[in-house]
Design a protein that fits this description.
Three copies of one chain form a homotrimer. Chain A has 394 residues and is α/β, with parallel strands linked by helices. Chain A folds into two domains: 187 residues, 3-Layer(aba) Sandwich (Rossmann fold); 178 residues, Rossmann fold, CATH 3.40.50. Chain A contains 17 helices and nine strands. In chain A, the strands form two sheets. Chain A has a five-stranded parallel β-sheet with strand order 7-6-5-8-9. A four-stranded parallel β-sheet of chain A has the order 2-1-3-4, with helices on both faces. In chain A, strand 5, helix 8 and strand 6 form a beta-alpha-beta unit. In chain A, helix 5 packs across helix 6. Chain A is globular and about 60 Å long. About 2% of the residues of chain A have low confidence. Chains in contact: A-B, A-C, B-C. Chains A, B, C: One of its GO terms (biological process) is L-arginine biosynthetic process via ornithine. Chains A, B, C: It comes from Candidatus Chisholmbacteria bacterium RIFCSPHIGHO2_01_FULL_52_32. Chains A, B, C: Belongs to the aspartate/ornithine carbamoyltransferase superfamily.
Chain lengths: 394, 394, 394
């Protein structure tokens, strides 16, 4: 198994001229399967080197700008850990302190924050049509800045969760699935259930579900998307998942019954998200700046959720999965019934039984982000890795 | 004197297999005297290397998570400086940004923030029975995470002030006392007065006083604890101090008269803390979530303080100490009468006369913290130090 | 041209014993012309080394304390980028989190934050007579601390914008002018118009205008300062500019007509600042702590501004400059009419035409700050640079 291969052999398998060099990482759908595999391989190498106490600070200097437009602990940590692992310093951009606005000013700000920046990590996931567009604006600004000769380097923009995709999550999930089922190839035909689940909290983004379906349907998996009526994902993306599954020799289906979905599953991923119609309304209100309407809308969303309290991942449902032992997945934090809330996404007994697996799943993220940084910033990462391992940092 | 010894000789005196390796540092009482001495020695080595401009960035990568649940400038700085000195990157965990709650979620959060973390530095000192328990919860979580194979390394938890102890402060105080009186041995029999003092501000934790008494009674000092009736420390700890003094051949006494306490003292440490009964009530109110009652309680605490305005460290009182020149100590910031408040802990003339000494006392803290980091993280710190000094960082 | 010279030759031109070593950088007026030139040269070297991917992390350890008493994105970024470039870790001092007060406490805090600190970068620009005085207090505190033997090193204080000067801005502007006009010598006799411009926002500091006039009048430029009646700079400084221009063989004039000022200009720098009388009143109110009066004063300032909406940098006015193609400058962010505000400092067409130039101007700042750090901290920067380039970091 690859886990046991020597690090030298693993490094030598990295592409000499890697096609991710100089690019952004906004959606996995924009990357080829070999590129996806290169990220997994690079993450594995970095994890191995770290566990052996090796110096992986490849950058002689440079900033990683952490631009969170929403609260975050886990991803903020993973981004900081990845930056540190490679020798970058993190600059946290706190919008409350900086007053960054939209339009012209974003272009300007992005350029001004790029003179010595290697990567931007951006989270912007609260409103449909906003986050991805914001990231593209930043990417365009630094592209123009570089082309005009203003920026010596063009930083890479990494999506740390948008309204459309959450690639650092879905790739961590993929690394976990690969490790659990033995190999990427072994995932073919495996049934993965991405299911909505009840939560008493409101407004969770759609991007985890979209990211997981978007990536796994390209890998020949049998992806089942389950949600109550009215909780669909972005329609254009759902259509894309059908197409991708067909092309990859996999399967994609949408069902509206959690229990049905779980039957015979190899892995289940029950997780709450906001109702699509409510998300759309919220975006319209945001654009009008109607804060009062947004508060009312939140109540409406919560009331909608309350009709679907039976969408909870229970022991009984887990027993209906393949052999009664499907891999339970979650991006964390989960709403655990009786623990973090009265009624939530998952029964305590299920959550506790899979606690170790959940941490293993989460533990991939810092390395996945570091891999993205390394591959988007170094044309020949194998060369730079070897040079650094020899103790040369210049 | 040790200050003049070559760094090479100092390094060679560090334990080859140090027993602090892999442990937390929550209370000095859990550490043996040789371990306490190792921290002092390591701090001295790091200070010397720094003053000579040597590279002490021993870590090839890694995070130091700074988890402050209360405001802090000095300790936050010292923690950041210590991390930088050893080559760790700091991640500041701002609870307002992260919404960390108690119970299950703390365990989860701690694990999620540990994948590439070497140390947690935690301050949580506002409520009796809370801070130390919180740190133990974090320590248990990472222990379990490591044992289950989820965390490649088990980070060390360092107490940056809890409701029970403040080891980075008391060890800095000890380094200062050792330097002032010539050696650790010279402290035997010296009279140290840890005294309550009046302050117009409310709610200062008990941990500085507890930390100082807890450490110095183990070293054969003649520790006098002075406070007005109702301002006692945690009773269980006071009992422990009596026991320790007896075992170490020192002395511990409690008096309720500041003037009496100062007579013939070798060193005085006058500092305000909240009345114990008020602290206890506050904790009960916090648990009930009764914010209104807490505001009323604050007034009660301040009114109690107001009855003891004569507990001020004055020139007259300093004259009654041994030879009129006891070492005045404070953890800073002090409430200086007529400067930072109308009436406070200490007269301006006393404070000014000891300003230099106070800064020297404070200056130990970054090196004490760095020493704790080095000793809890490296099994053979002498080897790693020498390797790094030779310019090898891998 | 110097841009093409090899880095080795550039480095060898740095002063062997540089007179900026150990000093602060609070006002350009306190520095000699050779010292100003050394900063420009050092910035150019660091930029070149960075563009070649060389290791410029000269510090083996150390903190750069970022002390912003006002909001900032660009300068905060530049300071962090400069620190990273040289191998320092940034500690952000958030006054909301730290409760730093004036007087004694500033002295104390500054000392307590200096034990392992190389540089303080301070922004404090909101009130006349406050910011510069604050920086001097910090500088005095660390000077005393070092002289008393409390601080092993005396950190350098860098002004990141005060009420009097903004040296990191004016030196970036100078680097830009030098690059644009070919050399420092070529600036002699060139007409630079520093003009007030209309803005719908209030309370911008005077320091950019003061910084630019203060520096450029010493270099033989023909500096024209233009503002509506009542918008003068600190009178003592204006008198100084006249004197400096005379001494340098340049020219300094004050006019009250923007159109007149622009005629035949080689470069124009139209930028808003608050009316002087309003600034003075605001400072008095601040000292009294009269927040209500400050709010009323803001309205008064805005009403004053509104009478001068014709002070806008238009295409028509740009046509009146030398050959119709003066270099348009701005420290950013600019109030662009119809973009970031209805009516502002500059027409959109002008701003867009110079967008690239504006970014080039801004791009100097991280390197100027890094140059200040390098020159104030290393006695022989050429030696340390060469040692680091050889891969020795100890």
């Amino acid at each position: 198994m690859a886990e046991r291969a020597s690090v030298g052999i693993l490094i030598s398998k990295l592409p000499k001229k890697n096609s991710l060099f100089g690019s952004d990482f906004l959606q996995t759908g924009e990357k080829s399967i070999p590129e996806i595999e290169a990220v997994l391989a690079a993450a594995q190498i970095l994890r191995k080197l770290k566990s052996e106490g090796k110096n992986t600070r490849l950058f002689t200097s440079g900033l990683a700008v952490s631009w969170f437009r929403d609260k975050s602990t886990r991803t903020r940590y993973s981004f900081a850990a990845a930056a540190d692992l490679l020798g970058l310093s993190v600059l946290d951009l706190d919008e409350e302190k900086t007053q960054v606005a939209h339009g012209e000013t974003v272009r300007e700000t992005a350029t001004m924050l790029s003179f010595l920046t290697e990567v931007f990590g951006i989270r912007d996931d609260l409103y449909l049509g906003e986050g991805h567009a914001f990231m593209e604006t930043v990417a365009r600004a630094v592209e123009v800045g570089h082309n005009e000769g203003v920026l010596p380097k063009r930083p890479s923009v990494l999506n740390l969760q948008s309204d459309r995709d959450h690639p650092t999550q879905s790739l961590s999930d993929l690394a976990h699935l690969t490790s659990h089922f033995g190999s990427l190839k072994n995932l073919r035909g495996k049934r993965l259930v991405m299911s909505w689940a009840y939560s008493p909290s409101y407004g969770k983004p759609l991007s985890v579900a979209q990211g997981v379906c978007g990536l796994m349907t390209r890998l020949g998996m049998d992806v089942v998307l389950a949600y109550p009526d009215g909780y669909g994902l972005i329609p254009e993306l759902e259509r894309q998942f059908f197409k991708q599954a067909k092309e990859s020799g996999g399967r994609f289906s949408v069902v509206h019954d959690m229990k049905e979905a779980f039957r015979n599953a190899d892995s289940v991923y029950p997780k709450s998200w906001a109702p699509f119609s409510v998300m759309e309304e919220g975006t319209r209100m945001l654009r009008k700046g109607d804060r009062e309407a947004l508060v009312k809308l939140e109540k409406k969303g919560l009331a909608m959720n309350d009709k679907h309290k039976d969408w909870e991942c229970t022991d009984a449902m887990m027993r209906s999965t393949k052999g009664g032992k499907a891999l339970y997945m979650h991006c964390l934090p989960a709403d655990v019934s009786g623990v973090s809330c009265k009624e939530g996404e998952v029964e305590k007994s299920v959550f506790e039984r899979y606690r170790k697996e959940l941490f293993l799943q989460a533990g991939h993220k810092p390395f996945i982000i570091a891999a993205m940084m390394m591959l988007t910033r170094f044309e020949n990462p194998a060369f730079v890795l070897k040079r650094t391992l020899k103790g040369r940092t210049f």
